[in-house]
Amino acid sequence: MDWTSAQNLLALGANVITLPERTRYGERVVEPAAPPGTYDLGLRSEPNLELLNSLAPDLIVMHPELDMLRPVLDMIAPSILFDPDANDDPQNANKLASARVKLERLADEIGKLDAFSSYMNVYDAGLSEAAARLRSYDGRAVYIVTLLDTRRALVFGRNSLFQSLFSQFSIENAWDGPTSTYGHATVTIDALARRPDARLLSVGRESRLLLQAALRSPVIASLPFVREERAVAIDDVLFYGGLPSAERFARMASFGLTGTAAP
């Protein structure tokens, strides 16, 4: 019923027969890819319940934000809630640990514990490879951003999935300001001048295009990370997607920050 659930189910090798906005999923989430023949369930905010009913699923997995639909969905098939980004322990800001627990719980609920073990081997190997690449990183603090337009950006900091990865890799996050539940804040791009020594990591293809357009502004072009060519762009990563998103971000960020080419 949502991208996060689909992404994590696909990581477990589950038979996902439908997901919302399939084309955009392929552009924004990317991995794991939806298999051929997966039905498009319509908008994430307005899923096509008639189509869902006709597909006769064995189980519906959905984000808690869709819980208001549960009485209707339970008439179609049993449903469970899944949110890898939710933290059961507010004192522990490690989103990776929380996401791992949530994925194992999901695997248990759908009878895929063996697949969970196999996936964790792949995930752990991916993070180990990223850590090995990052040993050559120069140690600069990094702003992690997704541009919203040529003036504003989401900047990721405390309580974000990306921050949990940076902490594991001992990379300082340049943004130490307040953040939302998902670990981001909306700022004007010139606010990133607070750390003139920092590097910029831009996440998302649209963000890359917006950054290129923003460079036409004298104010943006004068920022140290632009002037000294310390801006790096990587492709899209779902910032609340749990372990599959974490592994993708670790891989792409480690290549981008070290200036090495991804295979």
UniProtKB/TrEMBL annotation:
Annotated Fe/B12 periplasmic-binding domain residues: 1-263
The subcellular location is:
Cell envelope
- Which keywords does UniProt give here? Ion transport, Iron, Iron transport, Plasmid, Signal, Transport
Which InterPro entries does the record associate with it?
ABC_transptr_periplasmic_BD (IPR002491), Bact_iron-sidero_bind (IPR051313)
Under the heading Pfam families, the entry gives:
Peripla_BP_2 (PF01497)
Membrane-traversing stretches: none
Q: Which domain of life is it from?
A: Bacteria
Q: Which family does it belong to?
A: Belongs to the bacterial solute-binding protein 8 family.
| Protein's name in the database | ABC transporter substrate-binding protein
